[in-house]
Amino acid sequence: MLDNHSKAETSFGHPADAEDPGVPTLARRPVSRRGLVIRLIVTALILALLGGALYGFNTFRNKAISDFFAGNKPPPTPVALAEATVQSIPKYLTAIGTLTASRQVTVAPEVAGRVTQIAFESGARVKAGDPLVQLNDATEQADLLAQRAQGRLAELNLERARDLRRSQATPQSSVDQFQAQLDEIMANQKRTQALIAQKLIKAPFDGELGIRQINVGEHLDTGAAVVTLTDLSTLYVNFSLPEQTLPRLAVGQKVLINADAFAGRDFEATIGTIEPQVSADTRAIKVQATLDNRERMLRPGMFANVRVVLPPQPDTLTVPETAVDYTVYGDSVFVAKNGKAEDGADRLTVQRVPVKVGDRLPNRVEIRSGLNPGDRVVVSGQLKLANGAVVVPAEGNPLTAPQTLPRN
Question: For the whole model, what pTM was predicted?
Answer without folding.
Answer: 0.63
